[in-house]
């Protein structure tokens, strides 16, 4: 079939040099604090121009949502930089979703959504932050892989996403559109922008009905495809880190169709990704500490690549009578996990997630709001430790620059 590839324009405002409502003018070179050098790897470590780099960050999935205002982007990124974080992980995907996102319908792309992502990238660059950008979603939110399956004339079920010719082409088309884009604000091609730390093939990909080999073939093909389009940036899987036969429980028996070690051994995958959610997985936080230890050790020793904890969280019910005790428990667990990441020389930890007070109605129990001071202190302390161990710390430079602004 002939693949449509249509850009839904935003009225020509950018092309004509006008500024869209709420859309910032291009940042000047003088104002930019864009990170120097691409994030790279040096055996089992991240590096920038040969100097070690550790990632301390937060997730914020709604940051690149077209409904998010530029003021919200700036406020959120200011929070991250004020805490000394150097990394933010946010979605670079959206399919379907009532017609207003990156790909509102099959083969059609919404320019205004991409312009918003341009703004997020440039706002991060202005603060010296790096971005981890997943390119698809295993889950239904923001369309997900099931939206590709729905668009296909030959796919039927979720895991057909990995094998169906049409869904694979739809994914490649979208990935190429993102990775080869030139930022409409800065004029910097994404593939040449040091603000982007790495691409993730997806957010938490699983192939429960197709199995480990099928997902491995897909990872190998798609990571190689991105590397050919963009040899400058790192690529990882974005997976949760489930094992293939390293134990009897569902996290380790291969039932999720992922193989933490073998899938990250693929040559065109640069770093090992894993996530940690004891509350969702039905395990205790002590198991979470073991999960960290196993993944850092296996990533460094068996795979031989950097390892980062791309998402983690402990759930809190703020409406419960014991909410305060739940928060105290969460803080204690975060202390333990952050300490183990540091002690094991893990290459990054990215919490789920710092957010704004106005997002309270959407709290899934994992949000960290302004005012959660004791939790925030844990995040800041880890950031400062990673900053001190990195060859190119960013925190002090940002504080000096922000002081000059104010």
UniProtKB/TrEMBL annotation:
Keywords annotated in UniProt: Glycosidase, Hydrolase, Plasmid, Secreted, Signal
Domain of life, source organism: Archaea
Major subcellular location class: secreted
UniProt KW Signal keyword: yes
Gene Ontology biological process: polysaccharide catabolic process
Catalytic activity, reaction form: Random hydrolysis of (1->4)-beta-D-mannosidic linkages in mannans, galactomannans and glucomannans
UniProt-annotated location(s): Secreted
GO molecular function: mannan endo-1,4-beta-mannosidase activity
Protein known as: mannan endo-1,4-beta-mannosidase
